[in-house]
Amino acid sequence: MKKLMLMAAFAVFGLSNVTAQSQFGVMAGYTNISAKVSAQGSSVSGDESGFFVGGVADFGISEKFHIQPEVLYAKANEASFLYIPILAKFMVSDAFGILAGPQGNLSLEEKTNGVNSFGIDLTFGANYKITQNFFLEARYGFEVTNRIANSAEFEGSGIKGKVNTLQVGLGYMF
Hints:
Number of strands: 8
Structural class: mainly beta
């Protein structure tokens, strides 16, 4: 968790001096959180829909390559998460970009014994500039970590838990 926060701070503050093309903004939209627990060939899954809202920065490294760190809060039914993606954005055209990168996610729910509250996703998506300030964005995050803690109660069980996320939103850059 400390490493992720350090990476996010570096991305936001360290990269702000890279180019004069730094922008900051806000984004909100639809989120779908999908949880899956599997063990010994069987699995149980469930989806919850809700909203997300947060802040976004865009640091232009070059005309075509940008770094886009964000801090997003998502709520879907009873589940609340804090997402901290640090995405690379490749601009295919002046208006269309492809996104990919790591995303930390932290469950804001009360800690459950045997379940990790923090996970890492691999996220990919697309970004489309509607105007100079407004943009649309869609992304999917695949969790690569296991939410089931390595504890004595689950030792040798082979239980795996993952939380994947779909987000579609509208943003505004200042």
